[in-house]
Amino acid sequence: MLLRPPPLLFAALTFSSLAHAEDLQLAPVEVTSSEASAGEVAQAQLKSVPGGTNYIDMGSVQQGRVSTNEDVFKYQAGVYAKAANNEGVKLSIRGSGLNRSPGSHASGLYEMFDGLPLTGPGGTPYELKDPLWQSRVEVLRGANGFDQGALALGGAVNYVTHTGYDAPTLQVRYEAGSKGYAQREISSGQVLGDADYYISLTDSESDGYQRQSAATGKGVAANFGYRFNPDLETRFYLRYRETTNDTPGKLTRAQISHDPRAANSLNAARDSQRLQPGSTWIANKTTLRLDDSSRLEVGLAYHDYPMDLREGTNRLKVAYTDISSTLKYIRQDTLFGHDSQTTIGLRTTQAMPNNGASEYVRTPAGNTVSYAPGTKTRDYSYLGSDTVLHIGNDLELVPDLWLTTGLAAIYTRRETEVSYPDGQAPLSQHDWDYAPRVGLRYDVTPQLQVYGNLSRSVEPPHAWSMIWGSNKYFTSGPARGLAREGVSLKNQTATTLEIGGRGEQWFGQWDLALYRSEVRHELLSVETQAQTATSNAIVAEANASPTVHQGVELSLLSPLWDGGGNGQLALRQAYTFSDFHYRDDDRFGDNTLPGIPKHYYQAQLRYSHPTGFYTSFNTEYSSKVAVDYANSYYAASYSIFGATLGYDAPGQDWQAWVDLRNLANRRYANTVTPGYDDKGLDVARSTPADGRGIYTGVSWSWR
Predict the structure, then answer these.
(1) Parallel/antiparallel/unpaired status of strands 273-291 and 232-246
(2) Domain of 84: which CATH number?
């Protein structure tokens, strides 16, 4: 079905968006001071990776509106994050999950909370990733998340929660703005002897830009840590959140140009909604220092994330529960007289037996016209597990030249079965695979580092995609036209070459990476039939013929003027070039894979005054985006502009800001969910970006 492209030996450039020039230390940094903050340790670790990484300080992100992860990942080279109608964000790194819809569960990335698994066999849900709970976000692009057990094409993202060590004793924050937007938070964190705690309560609401796109959310995040002695500490985590989102559906390019606030007529008629009635994540991480050169980290996480989807002719009630455990041993010593660090890790995530879905008639139409609302159509299961055993080593061959090696063994299991109306043939897949990695990092000077790595990634399908990709349907009864058994899918694999560097020169702080991935059996989803008045959309998933993902990731932070007591002027830029295409596919030749722009650029010009006042002007450019695999139609390119004016008190006790978005009120598609072959027609496949918006916020902290 979806099949191939030709090998272009390219590579990817990565300018990680770095917040402060003084943070850049390129020599191998070991932070041993007890006074070093957790953020400094994390930055040092990211800079020791021979590949593309991003460090996001949420303190700087929160100097403006922070509504979704699209706000979090602004100005981050190599990261494409776009929201649609609600907080569901299409997050793609190096083409991971490039053709997914922004709602539901994301694919192609291994995501974590505080170093513990969030991603399960069903993918990554979005409702627990409230940006206000984060202290920082760490991104390890591609194979650079190896030591976290991340083996997916896109790499790893780690959302790190505030603790009592970096949170104010009391903080209150309020945001408000266009289209009924409001967000509130109250939080507290303290260190109490050997213990510390952090707790945050948030709630939000919005009328939405499109009609039929109102949303609400409320939740709590908390953690409690205790240090028994200098060698043993533990921390417990809790996240709980509920969300409701009306779903306005997708629009055509013409609709976005002329009436972008419209809802898809079928979604409006059906009062389509996506409810997350209550998601819970409970975890513990315990660290034991064995001696001066080694430590052991043990983690356990419980994740329950049900969904109630009332979007089409049927209602889908989905149950997901995962149990994850991690074990990591880290040792620093010498090997043949050379400095060495070894990491051995094991992580496993197991879907619980209750995982699955029940489907009911919601709005009688088509095949279900004779069945009353509430009539059950299907029951089916989504089961599986992921287990990764990995060992990695960093060895200093000669001064300032480091060799990174690693090997992972992966066991994946996926099972699905339609158990109602008739017990159908269950589908079970069990696969062993492997992922090696080798890299070099050379610190030419303290201000210049170059690197290269070669790796293999492995990504299993989701169990739910094995049902939705099936072409075997019921032919009678309430389930007529619905899949009756799963379809077998292969693991997606890729071999990736990456080269790049980072440093600080006269023109500023820069980070550059080039990569090329030869992908086999890429897991691609496609809408093969649009929804109609009598049927739901049909979205299938299949393994593609060989594809290529290659690109350039580039970021630059340039100090333009330093006026001392009169303030500073700096320019931040992030550019991502993404060339994802088939390699000699029988049907599509070398066509571009749809869903992501080839060129994506963001920039911010910021003036900061020592008294705490700041103002910035920002811009974003995206090239056109293919909306089908045949490349017969494109979403338009766009450029937008915005500005921010704010005050951040030097004592960090209060902050206020005004954030102006899309000043020219440009109408454009923010996300694209691809079709197969639209034959040049303008089909409803895009969600519109918000129009012009004005947002303001204030926060007060007692420290």
Answers:
(1) antiparallel
(2) 2.40.170.20
